[in-house]
Amino acid sequence: MEENKNFKEITVKVDGDKWKSALDKALDKALKNVKVDGFRQGKVPKDIYLKRYGVESLFWDASDYCIEEAYDDMLKEAKDLEIAAQPMVDIKSIDESAIEYVFTLTLKPEVKLGKYKGLKVEKEKIEVTKEEIEHAIDHMREHYKENIIKEGSIEKGDIAVIDFEGFKDGVAFEGGKGENYSLEIGSNTFIPGFEDQLIGMKAGEEKDLDLTFPEDYPSEDLKGAKVVFKVKVNEVKEVKIPELDKEFFEDLGMDGINTKKDLENQVKENITASKEAQVEEKYIQDLLSEIVKTTEVDVPDTMVDDETELMVHEFAEHIKMQGITIEQFYKFTRSSEEQLKEQYKEAALKRIKHRLIVEEIIKQEKIEVTDEDVENELEEIGKKYNMTKEEVKKHYEGNLDYIKCDLEVRKAFSIIKGE
């Protein structure tokens, strides 16, 4: 790669006893696996192997044995450089006497800051509606719902516990059978007409349902097919959503919540806090995007590639928490890792520019975080999570620099916002 202001090449040479030792290790490895007529595997003499295959056949394995130490040597030489991406490594030369690695380093690009004070960026206003509060409370009530066995017939919204089996032309078809299946009536879980025909049935009753599969049903055998489902109702359950009464407030276990008004006030406070956090984050991003417009920075592709890789990894971890692997995501969406990376490239570049701008503001404003600042922050974290300062400090043991960096960034944000 051609050297310029964003890149630097460092050459590391491994020779002498170190390179000889690496070749010897590679030879020992090769002798364990090589097959030569007239010798048992693992018993081929070294001179026979070298005569047949040459010392050149050992170079790549020997290179692997040396790369870690060469990488460390490179980092020592580059200790005063700000490396901004994963270094790339190539072999410059290799022979029986030595190997030369060339490491291409991506350096942190120069940032020529534009205007970052007195920006004309409006912060969104926060409003919490009555409907939002009611929706949140309904969601809480839904979480505490109970399924109560009822004596009457099935109605919409009830849960029918059923045995069923489907037949096409009198023959049971695959995947059409279930026992003690809990079906919420009105959920449209089954094909059209199935749930509707259960309405009015009672526990212990049996019924044949004459139905037709949709024309767009995935299975070719059942697409548009007329079928009969033999159904038996084992139980009927009524979904009981709790009232906003004393028992419900006790179940919630929220301090100071004893009435509907108390709950509404608390929910409003929670929604407000959530919206404030979202609005604040958007405000910061809008400010940074405004600064980008007048800032000059040449971001190397290698930095964008690294950031893109990170964002894909973060996405994979996020969907993994929802029970979906990244491989399943690619299959479901008929996409690929390359396509996902392409989608993230613009966002990756934006994130890098924002980060570089904040770092440059910290540098230009000579922002410093004192030990007292860190101690105060540890106390605040403790209050938030009901922990002592010592417990918080132990949690961050060895990572107090993370808190320090976070405080530096927050101080930079305060300057940008004009606080």
Report on the structure:
The protein is α+β, with helices and mostly antiparallel strands and 419 residues long. 47% of the residues lie in helices and 19% in strands. The strands form three sheets. Strands 5, 6, 7, 8 and 9 form a five-stranded antiparallel sheet that branches. Strands 1-3-2 form a three-stranded antiparallel sheet. Helix 8 packs across helix 10 and helix 10 crosses helix 13. It is flat, with a radius of gyration of 34 Å. The mean pLDDT is 93.
Report how far apart the termini are.
45 Å
Unreliable residue runs: none
Biggest sheet, in brief? 5 strands, antiparallel
- Count of β-strands: 10
State the CATH architecture of the largest domain.
Answer: Orthogonal Bundle
**CATH homology superfamily of the largest domain:** Trigger factor, C-terminal domain
Order of helices and strands: EHHHEEEHEEEHEEHHEHHHHHH
Measured as a percent range, the helix fraction is 40-55%
Report the average pLDDT across residues. Answer: 93
Radius of gyration, rounded? 34 Å
Give a quick summary of the entry.
The chain has 419 residues and is an alpha+beta fold. It is 47% helix and 19% strand. The model has no long low-confidence stretch (mean pLDDT 93).
